[in-house]
């Protein structure tokens, strides 16, 4: 790891981020009744995860700022927008105006620091994500400049995939680095999260668990979210 990148950060904190959060992913919700779906899960959700795909960075095309704007009118939940797009810079202003609370971009696109500056100027929390095959070293030069580090535990683009357990080694190492350097960075994991995989993700150091199919494809999404929380952090409920 490049220790200088961490030591030089302007955003160190002496307090470890310890809040435990569940982020239902609306990618798996019924879009014909999206407001109702959000209402059904709100009691057990700490934030809503919004997967934005452009059909280029990933092969699927999903949603954009208009949906976020509509959600903002119906919920006070934190809107966590994951931009799986080739050119996120052209969308940041629109997402901020629509009511997004934070945007996460991918390290695979190249140096993200100019976009971090734009996000800060827009009042967005800054997230950085890495795909399952991307080494942790790719994000470490930027770890002192972000609020959220998102680990993809499936290949981005499709819901319902099987969890990739090898990602947990990277997550655990990031947890060690964040704690060792007292960084105010939340560690988030997305992909294949359910009651069986949540305990391992939490044990590796995740602060935020994103779950889509396991929540919205349940008969009772709020209860499903609660079960994931209880499985991950039995003493927190």
Describe this structure in words.
By secondary structure, this protein is of the alpha/beta class. Helices cover 32% and strands 18% of the residues. The protein has one domain (3-232): Alpha-Beta Barrel (TIM Barrel), CATH 3.20.20.70. It has helices spanning 3-7, 34-41, 65-74, 92-98, 113-122, 167-180, 198-204, 213-216, 221-232; strands at residues 21-24, 47-53, 78-84, 102-106, 125-130, 148-152, 186-190, 208-211. Strands 1-8-7-6-5-4-3-2 form an 8-stranded parallel sheet. The longest helix has 14 residues, at 167-180.
Describe the structure using short key phrases.
disordered N terminus; 237 residues; alpha/beta; TIM Barrel
The residue ranges in which pLDDT falls below 50 over 5 or more consecutive positions are 1-18
How would a crystallographer describe the biggest sheet? 8 strands, parallel
Say which CATH homologous superfamily is assigned. Answer: Aldolase class I
Number of domains: 1
Describe the structure concisely.
Helix content is 32%, strand content 18%. By secondary structure, the chain is an alpha/beta fold. Strands 1-8-7-6-5-4-3-2 form an 8-stranded parallel sheet.
Task: Annotate the secondary structure layout.
Blueprint: H1 3-7, E1 21-24, H2 34-41, E2 47-53, H3 65-74, E3 78-84, H4 92-98, E4 102-106, H5 113-122, E5 125-130, E6 148-152, H6 167-180, E7 186-190, H7 198-204, E8 208-211, H8 213-216, H9 221-232
Parallel strand pairs: 1-8, 2-3, 3-4, 4-5, 5-6, 6-7, 7-8
Helix pairs in contact: 3-4, 6-7, 7-9
């Amino acid at each position: 790891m490049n220790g200088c990148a961490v030591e030089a950060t302007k955003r160190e904190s002496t307090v470890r981020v310890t809040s435990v959060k569940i982020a239902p992913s609306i990618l798996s919700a019924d879009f014909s009744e999206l407001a109702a779906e959000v209402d059904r899960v709100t009691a057990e959700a700490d934030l809503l995860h919004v997967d934005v795909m452009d059909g280029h960075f990933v092969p699927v095309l999903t949603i954009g700022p208009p949906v976020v704007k509509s959600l903002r009118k119906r919920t006070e939940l934190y809107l966590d927008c994951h931009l799986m797009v080739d050119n996120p810079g052209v969308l940041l202003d629109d997402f901020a105006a629509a009511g997004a609370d934070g945007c996460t971009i991918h390290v695979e696109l190249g140096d993200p620091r100019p976009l971090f500056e734009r996000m800060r100027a827009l009042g967005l929390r800054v997230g950085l994500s890495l795909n399952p095959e991307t080494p942790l070293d790719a994000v470490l030069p930027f770890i002192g400049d972000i609020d959220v580090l998102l680990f993809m535990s499936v290949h981005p683009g499709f819901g319902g995939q099987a969890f990739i357990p090898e990602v947990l080694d990277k997550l655990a190492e990031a947890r060690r680095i964040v704690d060792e350097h007292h960084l105010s960075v939340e560690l988030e994991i997305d992909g294949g999260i359910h009651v069986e995989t949540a305990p391992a993700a939490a044990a590796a150091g995740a602060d935020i668990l994103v779950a889509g199919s396991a929540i919205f494809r349940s008969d009772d999404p709020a209860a499903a979210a609660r079960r994931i929380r209880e499985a991950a952090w039995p003493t927190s409920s």
